[in-house]
Amino acid sequence: MVEATQVAAREQWSSWADFIMSCIGYAIGLGNVWRFPYLCYQNGGGAFLIPYCISLVFCGAPLFILETSWGQLLSVGGLGMFKICPIFKGVGIAAAVMAFWLNIYYIVVLSWAATYLYNSFRLDDNVPWRNCDHEWNTPKCRSEYIKIPCDSNRTIAQFFNVKVLTHDHLLEYKKQFFVGDKANWTVCTQADLSVVSPVKEFWDHRVLGISAGLDHPGGLRWDLAFFLLLVWIICYLCIFKGVKWTGKVVYITASFPYIMLFCLLVRGLTLPGAGLGLEFYLKPDFSKLLESKVWVDAVTQVFFSYGLGLGALVALGSYNKYDNNVYKQALTVCFVNSGTSVFAGFVIFSFIGYMATMQEKTVAEVAQAGPGLLFLAYPSGILQLPYTQFWSILFFLMVLFLGVDSQFCTMEGFFTAIIDEFPSIRAKKYGREIFVGIICAVSYLAGLSTVTEGGFYVFQLFDFYAASGWALLWLLFFECIAISWSVGIDRWYEHMKSMIGYYPSAWWKFCWVFATPAVCFGVLCFGLIKYQPLRIDAYNYDYPLWGHIFGWFLSLSSMLCIPGYAIYIWIITPGTFSEKAKLLCRPDIEIKGAIEDNGENIELVEDV
């Protein structure tokens, strides 16, 4: 039996619109801008939308609905949500650990963006990554828009369609092409080919001050440390008061990026070469669908961009009223999220096509993913535009807004999980504010390791191991089977009906029971089989063994929570095997009493 005891009142969203805007702000982040367009181009253009949409229907949308409705059902965060299947509480602990790691390193991207934004505020368009006359530039610096009067051996070899060039090839090429306006041209030397753009040197030497590797942490980048502190203060101010305050903040942080994306799209489509970029972005290459990597990229992109498995969606859903139609709202957010990814691709590749045209290169040569797109490709692409500083301010403001709401919503997921588990924090005067402040301060101090001269290597290590890849897939697999196999899919459908008034489509039942766990586990196994140690090709850098060991510590620190807690709770729970299985996998809890009509929370306590 279950008895109800009063606990401190728990906040709720002021309206369902607060919930939707918060989910949009959280789920739509930098992954939509810096990862999806490049993956789409790299994996068959428009053809990539096929595996992407299939992944969305089989995995992304089912898990998004599951997490938000789970939070609404129990009105509790990522740890308390497992009261309906206590043996899987390790999944909630793993999510909290993963969110903690993510909060430490993800926010450093915003400090990089703030650095670029600060350097964009100037009266003229002479942004500091335009020229080679700064103290951080090297003798190899040369603008990518200044054509070097030579052709490389690779270009000549491609012309003759040979792998090895001979002296006769070079003579014949010179006779045909080094005439007229190109009479003074030569074959490129090693020095000609080793030039570095001022954009790259600004990023490497001025922003990162990058060192030789993880073994050389170097000194603190004080400007980045200041901007990191500033962004942490902003995030704290967005959430310290609770969801009623956060629900108002997201109206600005979630909607403003769309205004800026639209402005950038209008400008991008009017640039010469925009059509070339969009052609490379969308032109379908259906032969790519035969490659397993394309399908794995589609699945991981859906998981990455939807923000699944970190407890944030559960936390956002937990502040809904019990009878809110979370089902339709979650589907709406899914479509907005994926639509934004496609829309952002038009913006990014219109500028990349323009950049390729102005530099007389192919789109393949200038297209980049990840930080390279935000801090190398785009800053380079706008150099030839009038009012460069204006377009730079617009873009990096968008990056900051996209990142800030994803960051503070992830923080909210972590804090909600902890505070709901220890409600005495909320009961004390200013208890939440003080607790949030302490965790933010600790996270900032830990994050200082990412703003040293070797900080970029630390960032990449966290990004590869801590909160993505196999660790996330492992967590999502157990999260899904906790509902479909432990709680029971039929019982879950009854819970859904009690909230929204009708049964969801039978399609979701198929996904939650079979499709989604199978895809998560299959991609997890594929990733481990194909595992290759982290390497940064841009700097030709291989991590030392101790770096990989630390990376695996980051992964296992969350992954081992799931079996570890299951074993622990099974050992300490009294009773026979069948009694333990009943108590830990499918306890008798009256969920319908979780929220009464008067809006007060009821804590369900099992009478063991």
Walk me through what this model shows.
By secondary structure, this protein is an all-alpha fold. Helices cover 65% and strands 3% of the residues. The protein contains 27 helices and six strands. It has a two-stranded antiparallel ribbon with strand order 1-6. A two-stranded parallel sheet has the order 2-3. The protein has a two-stranded antiparallel sheet with strand order 4-5. A hairpin with a 4-residue loop joins strand 4 and strand 5.
Portion of residues in helices? 55-70%
Average pLDDT reading: 87
Strand order of the largest sheet: 1-6
Structural Rg: 26 Å
DSSP summary: helix tally: 27
By secondary-structure content and strand pairing, the structural class works out as mainly alpha
Strand content: under 5%
Number of DSSP E strands: 6
- What's the shape? globular
Largest sheet: 2 strands, antiparallel
Protein name: Transporter
Subcellular location: Membrane
Disulfide bonds: 132-141
Main location: membrane
Give a quick precis of the structure.
With 608 residues, the chain is mostly helical.
